[in-house]
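User: tokens in, sequence out, please.
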């Protein structure tokens, strides 16, 4: 085989590899462009500032199609799925009311599922975080509430026998020692009738005294309440499809009273 023939054969071998490489690179770029990579990007797509690359703005019904692509489509069996139909109803309300999501709103919250350590043991709990203004056009994330079984103070003994007795004042309230050393798990039974327990304060206390440490955020989701009659969550979906990234993972129909109760529980109103 002469030298020219050898070079020709090598080129023939390499050409499909190069072609395949270009195809893979093109596919990777396509997936990257279609993925909702950031929460801010989700907000921009929801607000109609940017669109899914596959859906041109000139396409009839493009606004609705773009919004439907912000759902995790894997949760629907088909377009005839009642859940899909409900998603379409929510999208119709978004379009009809021109609903927009604003970063500075107090009507959305981050829900961080945390892995931590309390007294040397691994614990899991949730933190709700909201956006708070810190000056003109300046904001920060703040911890609004904490929830989890480690903050549970439900008394083990629900009988009326657990108490500080009427004559305890005659013994310098010696029963207070017994309460903390023998009945600590029933501490709520010793509080006044209208005692309002605040888990966020307990979280702050435990962290302040170095008893509770956060190892990492195990999972993260965001909850939005801006759509009339609905509340929806978004999570990050890592997959090589044109429906990936930050997507609506679930949504619920709620009435105004239920939505207000949810927001009040996050912001600890009436505590």
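Assistant: Sequence out:
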């Amino acid at each position: 085989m002469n030298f020219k023939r050898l070079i020709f054969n090598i080129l023939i071998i390499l050409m499909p590899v190069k072609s395949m490489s270009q195809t893979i690179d093109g596919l990777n770029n396509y997936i990257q462009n279609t993925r909702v990579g950031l929460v801010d990007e989700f907000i921009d797509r929801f607000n109609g500032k940017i669109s899914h690359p596959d859906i041109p703005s000139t396409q009839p019904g493009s606004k609705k199609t773009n919004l439907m692509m912000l759902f995790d489509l894997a949760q629907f069996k088909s377009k005839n799925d009642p859940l899909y139909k409900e998603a379409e109803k929510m999208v119709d309300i978004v379009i009809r009311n021109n609903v927009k999501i604003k970063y500075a709103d107090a009507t959305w919250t981050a829900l961080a599922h945390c892995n931590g350590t309390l007294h040397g043991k691994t614990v899991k709990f949730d933190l709700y975080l909201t956006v708070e203004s810190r000056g003109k056009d300046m904001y920060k994330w703040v911890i609004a509430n904490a929830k989890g079984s480690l903050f549970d103070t439900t008394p083990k003994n629900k009988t009326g026998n657990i108490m500080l007795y009427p004559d305890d004042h005659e013994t310098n309230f010696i029963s207070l020692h017994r309460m903390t050393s023998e009945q600590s798990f029933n501490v709520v039974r010793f509080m006044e009738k209208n005692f309002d327990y605040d888990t966020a304060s307990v979280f702050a206390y435990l962290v302040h005294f170095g008893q509770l440490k956060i190892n990492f955020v195990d999972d993260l989701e965001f909850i939005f309440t801006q759509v009339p009659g609905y509340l929806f969550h978004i999570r990050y979906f890592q997959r090589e499809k044109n429906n990936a990234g930050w997507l609506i993972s679930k949504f619920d129909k709620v009435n105004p009273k239920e939505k207000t109760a949810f927001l009040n529980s996050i912001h600890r109103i009436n505590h």
